[in-house]
Design goal:
GO biological process, one term: abscisic acid-activated signaling pathway
Largest sheet: 6 strands, antiparallel
Helix content: under 10%
Number of strands: 11
Strand content: 35-45%
Pfam family, one: C2
CATH class of one domain: Mainly Beta
Subcellular location: Cell membrane; Nucleus
Number of helices: 2
Family: Belongs to the plant CAR protein family.
Protein name: Putative ADP-ribosylation factor GTPase-activating protein AGD13
Amino acid sequence: MDRVLGLLRLRVLRGVNLAIRDFYSSDPYVIVRMGKQKLKTRVIKKNVNPEWNEELTLIVEDPALPVKLEVYDRDRFSFDDPMGEAEFDIQPYFEAVQMDFKGLPDGIIIRKLLPNRQNCFAEGSDIRWVNGKVSQEMILRLKNVECGEIQLQLHWISIPSSTSFEVSVSSSKQQVDPVL
């Protein structure tokens, strides 16, 4: 835990045109992984355009590790059906967080990331200076599925010392499951 660089607050906003895995709809949820961390959103019943608007917080020790998303359809009597996956690199975002942007106008674009064969961006993703913080919004196209996108926002939380980190995590209700 002494290598913690900060916390990445990931807001899973919504899914768009997700794959149908039940009769006429799906019951989607998202699993987010980074290294050995695994977090999960709630299930949205019977909706291929779900609005999660849910915050998940990852502990960042190595910004070179990708963040991986997997979308599943919740099933009661069988294994959950896969609905696609995506991943993104936080290195450009982390580099922006390390810079000093005080005095810049609100909303200014720090860096623009474009879709290419190496990423899952459905469109350009801007890293911006908003309300005194570095923010990034992205739409990721899901892979290994016929259709679907996930919209996310990233926010960074600095950790002044490992002592304050231990206190804030122990008081948090969010569950971080190790990947087995």
